[in-house]
Amino acid sequence: MYKFRLVFNLTELTYFDIDDQSHCFQKGSNSYIIFTKDGKKINQSSQLVIEGTGFSSDQEAYAEGQKMMNVLRLYSVSKRTGVHLGTDKVMGGISDFLQDRIRNEKGIVVLNEVNGLMTYEDSENVGVISVSPTSFTLHKSFDGLKSIFDDYNKELMTFSNKLTNALDIYNGALFSPTPKLRFLMLVISIEAIIERTVGSSISQAGRELVKAMLGNKEYNGRSASEFFRHCYRLRSDFVHRGIWNEDNNDLAYELENLVVELLAAKATRERLERN
After folding, report:
1. How far apart are the first and last CA of the chain?
2. pLDDT digit string (tens) for 202-214?
């Protein structure tokens, strides 16, 4: 049997409301556990790991891990909580020499932890060396994440590459250290799902997308399409001409409202089109 292991971080000072170091849940023949990397209780730590077990192949475990990543991406939009899904690279750990020595002397396969998603054989003779956590330090209901997982459990939860990229950029925006960068990344997350036709500009195609998805909703006193055009112009002034007025920082919150509703609508549409 095989398992997946997914290491991720919530935004600083954001925690799930579980008053324990770990929490188990079951779906069919598969078991899942969420626990902390730093030994704290889940409601005190943003450094988390989800493991899933009971998969018949490495490919099945990896597919389930990817589905869990998409559950977290959708959760981030529905709860406006940044989720950093890692880099899928080994961070630290022990050398190949030491791994070989432990294997030869103890018969134990030691794997270095991947910062992100990894899969491996579920065996007593296979272990993972956890890297030292980075310091990150609002409580969020774990039921929200569990609800999304339950809703999508019976289907292979997949997104288009464009939507996946947009969700990841949105998450990156929530980790941005300044309102200016947050604003820029939020605009880029919209650009990531724009489908341009021949002869149309990004601004025009973006307005058409936002209007189609959000209809007559208003943001900051403007229609959704006009608010996007305004934000895109500010983005262009900043990127191409170096112009940025600090008063624009206040728009980031309202722009986030638009992005959250747009990405959620896009995810729903893709799900309906698949079915």
Report:
1. 30
2. 999 999 999 999 9
Ordered DSSP codes for 232-251: HHHHHHHHHH----GGGGGH
- The answer to whether 174 and 77 have CB atoms below 8 angstroms apart is no
- What is the C-alpha to C-alpha distance for residues 272 and 275, in angstroms, rounded to an integer? 5
For 74, residues 6+ apart whose C-beta sits below 8 A from its C-beta are 148, 152, 157, 167, 264, 267
pLDDT digits 0-9 by tens, 127-149? 787 654 433 234 455 666 667 66
Q: Which residues does 42 contact at the CB level (< 8 Å), separation at least 6?
A: 15, 16, 18, 19, 20, 21, 22, 23, 34, 35, 36, 48, 142
User: What is the C-alpha to C-alpha distance for residues 20 and 34, in angstroms, rounded to an integer?
Assistant: 10
| Cα 94 off chain centre by | 28
